[in-house]
Amino acid sequence: MTDKSINECLSVLRMRCKDLGIVLTEEQIRQFEIYYNHMIEKNKVMNLTTITQPMEVVEKHYLDSLLVVRHVDLSREISILDMGTGAGFPGIPLKIVFPYLRVTLADSLNKRILFLDEVIDACGLTGIDTVHGRAEDLGRNKNDREQYDLVVSRAVANLSTLSEYCLPLVREGGLFISYKSAEIEEELRTAQKAIRLLGGTKSRVEKDTIPGTALERSFVIIQKSQKTPAKFPRKAGMPGKEPII
């Protein structure tokens, strides 16, 4: 991979971010480049992502992570938890672009957390933390339970399971946003019972396309208006094995 190809793709990122109302600074471009280089290097020794070509990373990781800005107000300081963050998406791109956000990256695999700590340090990011743990355990930890204005997740799981992972972490009045594939209506319908039991009320789907591509994304946006009952989340493994339906 040549520096030129990376730089070309970062120029595309800068251009397409303008379609999202985002004007990237030179420092932010530098941070995205550092992030890319660290991810590709670490991917040689551990499975972070199957998406490694620079343009694919720009489109399917960076721009996809940032697309949510069209559907939620990120113009002020709020606390965000990225559940099941993996290689840091969407949390790190959101932090780079909106440095005033207070971001927590959560993942159950400690090797990923160590990688994310390296990226945070290399990029010089502040006001961003990492947490090693399962969602079911974090949801019962008083330091995390109902502490976040916004919980986001690109994790691959059905919406009922994701709601049990994430809604217990959202404060009353906050939002849970699940990044989903284009067709989500039936999954959302099936998850309504879980959403209601967990304290969620209004839910809607916002469909969008990544700027400059034909790649589609659906955002399931769930508002939380009541506390999550103490019995949720259930013990580790249960939300995935026996989703609330």
TrEMBL record:
E.C. designation(s): 2.1.1.-
Keyword presence, Coiled coil: no
Subcellular location(s) per record: Cytoplasm
One Pfam family it belongs to: GidB
Residues where S-adenosyl-L-methionine binds: 84, 89, 135-136, 154
GO cellular component, one term: cytosol
A molecular-function term among this protein's GO annotations: rRNA (guanine-N7-)-methyltransferase activity
Superkingdom classification of source: Bacteria
The protein's enzyme class: transferase
Function: Specifically methylates the N7 position of a guanine in 16S rRNA.
Family: Belongs to the methyltransferase superfamily. RNA methyltransferase RsmG family.
HAMAP family: 16SrRNA_methyltr_G
The protein, known as: Ribosomal RNA small subunit methyltransferase G
